[in-house]
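Checklist before submission:
- one chain only
- standard amino acids only
- sequence pasted in full

Submission:
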Amino acid sequence: MTDLLSLTATEARHALDQKDIKAVELTEAYLNAATETEALNAYTVLTPEKAMDMAKASDERIASGNAGPLEGIPLGVKDLFCTEGVETTACSNILKGFNPAYESTVTANLWADGAVMLGKLNCDEFAMGSANETSAFGPVISPWTTADDADYVPGGSSGGSAASVAARSSLMATGTDTGGSSRQPAAFCGIVGLKPTYGRCSRRGIVAFASSLDQAGPLARSVEDTALMLQSMASHDPGDSTSVQEDMGDLLSGLEDGIKGMTVGIPAEYTMDGMDESIARLWDEGRRWMEDAGATCVEVSLPHTSYALPTYYIIAPAEASSNLARYDGVRYGQRIDASSLDEMYANTRAAGFGAEVQRRVLIGTYVLSAGYYDAYYLKAQKTRRLIQQDFISVFEGVDLLLTPATPSASFPVGQEVTDPVTMYLNDVFTVPASLAGVPAMAVPAGLSGEGLPLGLQLIAPSFREDTLVRAGRVLEKAAGFNAIASRAAGARQ
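Returned file contents:
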């Protein structure tokens, strides 16, 4: 089992095609790994029967020579993606018991390419969180720990996705990224997380948080696996008005082309007070790796970066307050009966929404209210446009940007949950790219002094995921990150 779990998705695909292994063997190994690591609470539900049926079908297609790009690859699905007949809750009490009658476009694409569904993965409630501590199913525990064997957060909101990949209980996982929800947990867990250009992946069938920011993306062990998965996830979808018709090309064909001759921008505004010294050193090292690979690194400025976080925490809650108004106890999900309709609404939402979701809905309602719309929401939208323009301008002179992924390594479970402002600061390096809609990726690049993963972030112009993965591959090879989490499946055997 350990040998099977050590394979990357690309290696597993090759072994399957060569008939060295079978999809049912690989799937069984990951189902066993998920059970072995269940204390991490990465999964909300496992679907072993469905997984084995899909794996058997994969073996048949491989035998007949009709294998898809992800044929036989077992992966987990963040509990934000609707999966036909499998409970989808957004990790909220208000949606417990909701079994969609349809499949999200992204997961339908994955199944069409042969991927195998292991189950649904834990996340922050409605993707609102940076530590995966707001879930109605309880917090996810990172498979990484320190010498004292303390419990650390995996990051959020895609904490279950990142933890499962790092713990080797899924080979790949879907994530969503609104303000860094794929990249930050990827950095915390020592894996790769990619946020595509806004509109690259369909949002149809994904439970909405902030519609102008939400974007599905892959989490995997390597840049190559991430590119492989994104090729399947991305598509134009007429059912999603924000889905774009922009050919992505073959990300894998140019993966090893390197970055010789490219210009890499180092944004001055990402040097911040209080940033972990190990992060700063790693950033400097990342710059040297880029230069050693033949790129030219130059200092650049994104002058409105300091406004990104407050802008995000006005726009995102505003959109959330509108999107979450649909959860009223009438049509689906939880209902708390009462003597009047208004009382039923109030009781249902009070019981169904957790504290963080309630907080953001209230913030959003406030900034959209009469008398405050112009002062807060409208001003935030104008500031967002300035942030977007910063990226447009800087990409006229550079091919991509190199920044830290997070201001620190992971932190202990429960440490920041009572301080929302401190928690929000975890997104300080990821939010700007989200507001601008440009693609960005976190790549594992080292360990902190305590032995916890650290990541670097690459940001590329819109629709240049090809540049992003090429540069990511350079970083990956230079860093040589091959550490395995101590709580991963098979790690302590």
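Reviewer check: The first helix runs from residue 2 to 5.
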